[in-house]
Amino acid sequence: MSPTHLKKSEKHEKRPDELEQAWEDLEDSGQEITMAKIARLGNQFGYTTGKWVLYAESNYKIDNLWAYVARAVVQGQCGIRAKVSSTNDVDPGDGHNVIKIYNNFTNYNAVMDLEKQIRKAGIKCPMKYKPCVYTALRIYNNNPWKLRPTIYHSDFDVKTMQSRIMRVTDTQKLELVYDSSSMDQMDSSNECHDKK
Asked: Can you spell out the DSSP letters for 164-176?
């Protein structure tokens, strides 16, 4: 599939200038920068989307993954839109190609459901979930606020056919939030990383 960006629907109006000003005001206030405050800014200024980010080490793998994801999005089975890129905005400079599958990060159930949909589509690679407001505010690894740039991490165990999802806590540690049961009809050929 040739398009690098697919949309099913998008119904929010972003206000980047107002977000930037509110962010500067928050930084200047001397208050602690927290995940909750960033989420409130996202809600207030129309940055409510987030993305599950899938990583692939080779062009061959990314092309195969993109075919799965693009088909699932177009068929209405997976997220509101998707994008494939050789630029990684979660960990810039790490050399991986990425696919991003979007939905509303403020709805926990929707985020977990999207992870299940991605896994049901046959995607087994490790994934991280990043709110788009973090990207807009340039919150990457090693930021001055010591925040993780992602709020969920999902790993898939091909032996047990189960997902394991961890969330980032307010103290920036990972804690288990979801351990899925066995999933049916998974295609084991759709691995994300090159076999070593």
From this structure: EEEEE-TTS-EEE
